[in-house]
Structures are given as C-alpha cells and as structure tokens.
Design a protein that fits this description.
The protein has 241 residues and is of the alpha+beta class. The chain has helices spanning 86-100, 105-108, 126-147, 178-181, 212-237; strands at 15-19, 27-33, 36-45, 59-66, 112-121, 160-168, 171-174, 186-193, 198-205.
Amino acid sequence: MTRTSGRAFDEPRPINIIPGYTKFAPGSVLIETGDTRVICTASVEDKVPPFLKGTGTGWVTAEYSMLPGSTPTRTAREVNRGRVSGRTSEIQRLIGRALRAVVDMSALGERTVWIDCDVIQADGGTRTASITGAFVALYLAMQKLKESGIIERLPVTDYVAATSVGIVRGIPLLDLEYGEDSEAEVDMNVVMTGSGKFVEIQGTAENNPFSQDELDELLRLAKKGISILIAKQKAVLGAEK
C-alpha cells in the first residue's frame, strides 16, 4: 500500500509545536500534525469544583471545539445548538483524563487548570493532537506558576502524548490522516506517558473483528509514534525528565 502522503506505514506526519502562540494564556501552543492544526491554551483559576473545596488539591479539565472553517464543509458552532455534542463531550473528557494522569493535584493546590483546544484545521487525529499540544501548554503554565512563587514545585510528574493507529486495506498504519481514517477497518487512539505507561486505549473494528497479533502490532506502532511526539515535546520545552 502506498500512502497518499508518501509516508512509510510506521512513519508519523511531520509535527510542529509552536509555544507561546497566544498573548494572555500562561501556557499556549499551536500544534501541527500534518494538515491538522490545533491551538491549545492553559489558564489557571484560584478555585476548584465544589467536590474539592477544602481538600488542598487541584483539578485539570478541558474544553474542545472544531471551529467553523476547520473542515471542508462549515462546522456549526455548538454554542448555537444550545448543547455540546456527544463527540465533543467524549473528547473533552479524554483530554482531561490524559492530563490528570501526569499532574500531582496536591502540588497544584486548590486551583483549576482549564485546557482549551480549538481545532482550526482538521485532517484526522484532532483529539490526539489536542492531547499532545495541551500537555505542552499545561507544562508552560505550571512553569510560570512555579517561577512566580505561587507553587513550590512543578506538579507535572511525567510527559503524556497521543497518536492514532489503524488498519487500512489490511495494513497497520501509524498516525492516520482523514482519508485513511475514513476507510479504516480498525481505528484506534492511544494515550501514553513518557515512562511508557498507557493512559487510555480506544479501539474499534468497523466491520470484521481484529486479532491479538494485529492489536499487538497497532500498539507497537503507537509506542513508536508516541516516543517521537514526546521527544518533540521535550525539545520544545528544553527539558529532559
């Protein structure tokens, strides 16, 4: 199989992470994975949800949206529909879970970190790009809190990133673009930490079930892709953990 982009089956799309992309948020990036582009910002509030008041621990939560011009056919703003779609809600929760897995909430204190991921151009993998970019935005925001003396230590315990894998025309592929994702027989999103632990695996067979051997190969590809993403995160942050 020859991929439209000319990539090898185990080759991710080109990735670019631009830190400090917006002026006001303490942490912000533009992340580009191929033709998918997402603006990720991290903002901090000195309050927590009611269930955490008085506990001394913080919270990390996320919002996600596809901007109207991000797809070939205009995507309507969900605010005009009066509710968030099931897809958006599921992605927001996924982003929040991924980031909370690598944050020490006690070191954060009673503060909420709001992660906003706005897709400005979509060509597959928007949720995985959002997680990868959101981590960098979160890290930058936490660095600023520490540098200003608001928190004593960086509450980030590990890196986290995500990628997609799938089986297209019988071949396992890494980092699916939209054309591949739309015809995939198996579609999977994988979230992993820098230490190689899994945070989440979302996998679905569209028609025929897939085998244990195919699952193992998809996870192998995901690990390879995520190791490349985390190396990019480290390079952008100028950090080694």
